[in-house]
Amino acid sequence: MINNLIIGAGQLGSRHLQGMLKYNHISQKIYVIDPSLDALNISKSRAGEIEHNHKIFFQTEWNNLPHSFDVVIVATNADKRENVVKQLLNSYNVNYLILEKVLFTELMAYQRVSKLLKFKSVKTWVNHPRRMLKSYIDLKTLIGENFIGSFGVTGGDWGLGCNGLHFIDFFEYISGSKVEIIDADWIDLELLKSKRKGFVEFTGTIKGRLANGSFFHITSLKGEPSAGTITIFNSDHRFIIQESISPSIFHLKKSEAFCHKIIPFNIEFQSSLTTRLLEDLFNTNNCNLTVFEEAKHTHELFLGALLKPYNIMQKNVNHILPIT
Description:
- This protein is of the alpha/beta class.
- The chain contains eight helices and 17 strands.
- The strands form three sheets. The protein has an eight-stranded mixed sheet with strand order 8-11-12-7-13-14-15-16. The protein has a seven-stranded mixed sheet with strand order 3-2-1-4-5-6-17, sandwiched between helices. It has a two-stranded antiparallel sheet with strand order 9-10.
């Protein structure tokens, strides 16, 4: 029997729990910790939707836990994550650690946590799940290695601060190249309230460049919320992707006079991806998610870029950006 732990039992944590419960190759003891009884009740309810033979322990405190865990998923808000990781690694042995994004709200936290992870020799990934989607794995195969071009996403008020990193990571994955520059000069100088209390959101455009010469832009328009459309262009290929509404990938090729073909896009939810994640970790000692050190680099650039307009709006010098 293996011991797994989920820290943070709310909307996302409860979906991770469902995914763990679907993993039936090994019996599990799953511990779920959250100081909020409401969050724990969400996880309890969603656990009840899955048939399983595992043992689940719901707790508000770090009491009576085993000394070692196989897989730990930290699904807290970003402002709590550094302290949670420190408490976890200074008190327990962990084989595999999965962290949600945005990793941390303070720039200096990235170096502190990186140092701790290296000292404890814990294999750690960041949950940018587009790398696990079968439709995108197939798309990357179709595109080939080192795709150089232009990447974009445009939608209406879709949570640029919260979700922008997912798209930048996706562009890195598809291109096979790391981000070099992120520029937030085109962010609207008007802060929005996030859906999560105590956090903020942005509209406007973030742009940047990848190491292989590719460019990207990410735009969240003011006004009514609307799903983003992803574009991937180079001189020979055009891909236009709708993920949530009429999910499809439109492929236009220069060699075919840019007549479009439709490639089905299959939606995969976190409750299924987490099951595959456990399969990969236990079968291969690895997974398709972004390793921590690679994600750290991108997160630091992203936070650093958004801190500039945030500080202009706050008329202050802050090193903490309240996004999650």
